[in-house]
Amino acid sequence: MLDELRAEVLEMNLELPRHRLVVWTGGNVSGRDLDSGYVVIKPSGVPFSQLTLESMVVVGPDESVKQGHLKPSVDLGIHLQLYAARPDVCGITHSHSPYATSFSFHTDGIPAALTPLTHLIGSGVPCTRYATPGAIDTAAAIMESVGETGNAAIVARHGVFTMASSARKSLEIALHVEEAAKTIRLAQQAGPVTSLDDTEIARCAAWYRTNYGQQTNYEQQS
Known about the structure:
Elements: H1 3-18, E1 28-32, E2 39-41, E3 57-59, E4 65-67, H2 76-85, E5 91-95, H3 98-101, H4 115-121, H5 135-146, E6 152-155, E7 159-164, H6 167-188, H7 198-211
Antiparallel strand pairs: 1-2, 1-5, 2-3, 3-4, 5-7, 6-7
């Protein structure tokens, strides 16, 4: 069932520890199949080194397991709530990446101070209010911050959620969020860091959409 999606979700989950976005068994990547409405996500508490195609869990919108013998991630409910609220989203990455999560103590989030970040998401990364751990309140806090079009949010005192058209794209955004957070934290040692103005942010995002990448569906960054 959903072999290609399960393979993509497995690959993206394995990228989390490779890029030091998580430690131990924390974090997760999911992907949604629009035709069936099913979601693929990693199992709960299984070391990344032990993840296989067979261990990926396929679930329905009601959290019922359609394929897989392991319990799905404890964050499954958050993913499903976000998918239900955002029909345009087919991939979600959740990490506890340290530099980005360090902004979870500040309500102003990560400023749109770097062009690579504005290219991908057209904004900075907002920090949500504190959310009671669990699917409903956490997903509600994220949606309050990202609205109908946002792609990334830092959940206060928790971690980062990024959303996109695929699991692969959501991980790409998560990586750029962490890179931007690290760069800004380093720059802040020398003084305040300010956001680009709204006109320039919009121009950067539009330029990237028009110019970046190949005409074919080429996934690797040049």
